[in-house]
Backbone:
């Protein structure tokens, strides 16, 4: 196991700078997910950590050793690729043992280590098959086995589940999590799927346009998003973002939405000065108002109801804006019905505009 | 009925095509079993004659047939093996590495394919003479082992059949550049290698112009040159020449049978999720 540290890391392709002065520390045994929209530089960052790409400037350290000039093998990392990248002309056994063969291990030792990895991933019966004879999930497991067999210091995953169907993705996600809990190897996982990142990782790194937006545990990111981008990216359905105005009267702070609705905001969670702001309301924090006594309410008309079983996802028109509400009460509602939703002051996020 | 009529006519056209293609070969085989006077009789005999052994003896008499056959085989095998190895290595260079001027070098290489080979005869003769390898088999097979056509063919095949991820995976596994080429890339481009091999083998086997210019010692003659040199003698022993011609086709047929299986093999299936 190794810690990984990036210091002022930048990468340019010609004139285009894709990574800007990144700093990140991954502790020994930690599982960190890099997440962001496509083109944000997360895969490039992973390739730099792997040693497949050179950084334009900055340092990559593993166990406090400077590794910029080392090959992937010398860094002792293992990588799982999005396309699996299995050698099509080799059997599962040969695929998994390829790196051990290069290391010059004895046949007996290779067989033993491949066997151990195969046991962990339940690949025993597939050893003599070629990749073309495997299903997507099985190929994915072989790719993981190939990484596992060499006892790497760091695991790197490059969107390993994006080619699988939804059900298999959930299953493999659990398998990866279980595997990490078992081997406790430092892991860096790239994905564009925030659910995957949140469920798997100890810490999540949110990236946009080659810059780190926020680093934190899944709960921290959910509860205290640093900016509008993180707020909109984390959580499903995503956060409602509305224009508003912040007003301070004595100790109380209020946001006034474009339709005149006033919402109380908890003053200590809102360090901004008065003026134009963006108000973030999570759909699951908006509750249908039960009586007239409820405070902090918004009024709108229902224009879409999407039942998901456990919740009804509602779209409410409010001052020309559409507001998503996740309603767990499952109260029957009619389209075009005027309803009131309320939210607790401490659950309102306010961002600078 | 609607479906069978086009089917039948298609087959008729194809069978006629096959007959037209095969006819010269069968004709050569038949002529190889007749004496010179039979061959020139009218109408010509379209059946196997009984002069095979006589023709064979005559063939060995007019040229060292087996030596010449071995020369041809040596030149073709060396040239083919060399071309398969060096063209694939060069193609791998163009495919896997990014270097300054890569596109220019590749473009110049492609452009060189457009120069008619006949134009390069005198410069290549002078070069070979300068190198002191005139009248050697080396001069026949060596200059062609890294040729633009082969490099282009294999490089295009690599582009379509090998993903960058596969090369990266091998790098992560700790394979050296040569190891990646040898253990990962070569097994995946077997069909292209087989195609190149058969094209090269046929080209070298049938090559007449280069041996004519470069080889002067009769013991170093290759088949094409030897068979032609006999014809220049008055009263050419046509039966023996036809037999020699037919025998010279056999290695080609064998080579095709050996490689065609490889050409069909779709080895890259399942390389990546498709």
Residues:
């Amino acid at each position: 196991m190794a810690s990984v540290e990036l210091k002022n890391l930048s990468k340019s392709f010609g004139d285009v700078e894709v990574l800007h002065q990144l700093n990140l520390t991954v502790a020994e045994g930690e599982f960190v997910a890099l997440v962001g929209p496509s083109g944000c530089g997360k895969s490039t960052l992973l390739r730099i950590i792997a040693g497949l790409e050179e950084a334009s400037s900055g340092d990559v350290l593993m166990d406090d050793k400077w590794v910029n000039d080392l090959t992937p093998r010398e860094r002792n990392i293992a990588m799982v690729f999005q396309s699996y990248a299995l050698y099509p002309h080799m059997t599962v056994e040969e695929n998994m043992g390829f790196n051990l063969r290069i290391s010059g291990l004895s046949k007996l030792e290779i067989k033993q280590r491949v066997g151990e990895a195969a046991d962990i991933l339940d690949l025993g019966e597939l050893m003599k098959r070629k990749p073309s004879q495997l299903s997507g999930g099985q190929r994915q497991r072989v790719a993981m086995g190939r990484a596992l067999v060499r006892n790497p210091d760091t695991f790197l995953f490059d969107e390993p589940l994006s080619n699988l169907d939804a059900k298999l993705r959930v299953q493999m996600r659990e398998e990866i999590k279980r595997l990490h809990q078992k081997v406790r190897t430092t892991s860096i996982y790239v994905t564009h799927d925030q659910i995957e990142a949140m469920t798997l990782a100890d810490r999540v790194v949110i990236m946009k346009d080659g810059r780190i937006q926020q680093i934190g545990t899944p709960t921290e990111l959910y509860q205290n998003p640093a900016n509008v981008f993180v707020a909109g990216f984390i959580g499903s359905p995503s956060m409602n973002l509305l224009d508003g105005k912040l007003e301070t009267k004595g100790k109380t702070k209020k946001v006034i939405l474009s339709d005149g609705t006033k919402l109380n905001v908890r003053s200590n969670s809102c360090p901004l000065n008065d003026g134009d702001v963006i108000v973030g309301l999570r759909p699951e924090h908006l509750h249908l108002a039960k009586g007239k006594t409820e405070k902090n309410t918004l009024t709108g008309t229902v224009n879409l109801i999407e039942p998901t079983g456990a919740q009804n996802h509602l779209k409410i028109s409010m001052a020309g804006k559409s507001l998503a509400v996740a309603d767990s009460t499952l109260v029957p509602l009619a389209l075009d019905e005027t309803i009131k939703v309320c939210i607790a002051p401490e659950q309102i996020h306010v961002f600078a505009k | 009925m609607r479906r069978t009529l086009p089917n039948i006519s298609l087959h008729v056209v194809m069978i006629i095509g096959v007959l037209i293609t095969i006819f010269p070969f069968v004709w050569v085989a038949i002529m190889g079993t007749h004496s010179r006077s039979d061959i020139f009789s009218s109408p010509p005999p379209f059946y196997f004659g009984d002069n095979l052994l006589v023709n064979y003896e005559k063939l060995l008499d007019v040229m060292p047939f087996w030596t010449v056959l071995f020369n041809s085989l040596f030149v073709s095998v060396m040239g083919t093996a060399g071309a398969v190895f060096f063209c694939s290595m060069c193609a791998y260079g163009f495919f896997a590495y990014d270097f300054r001027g890569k596109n220019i070098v590749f473009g110049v290489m492609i452009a060189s394919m457009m120069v008619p080979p006949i134009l390069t005869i005198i410069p290549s003769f002078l070069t070979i003479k300068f190198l002191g390898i005139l009248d050697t088999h080396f001069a026949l097979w060596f200059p062609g082992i890294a040729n633009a056509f082969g490099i282009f063919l294999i490089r295009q095949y690599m582009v379509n059949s090998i993903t960058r991820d596969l090369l990266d995976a091998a790098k992560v596994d700790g394979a050296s550049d040569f190891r990646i080429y040898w253990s990962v890339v070569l097994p995946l481009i077997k069909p292209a290698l087989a195609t190149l091999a058969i094209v090269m083998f046929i080209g070298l086997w049938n090559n007449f112009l280069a041996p004519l210019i470069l080889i002067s010692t009769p013991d170093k003659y290759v088949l094409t040159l030897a068979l032609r040199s006999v014809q220049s003698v008055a009263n050419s022993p046509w039966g023996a020449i036809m037999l020699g011609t037919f025998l010279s086709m056999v290695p080609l047929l064998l080579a095709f049978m050996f490689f065609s299986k490889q050409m069909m093999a779709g080895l890259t299936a399942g390389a990546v999720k498709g």
In short: Chain B has one domain: 63-264. Chain B touches chain A at residues 163, 165-166, 168-175, 179, 183-184, 187-188, 267-273 (CB under 8 Å). The radius of gyration of chain B is 23 Å.
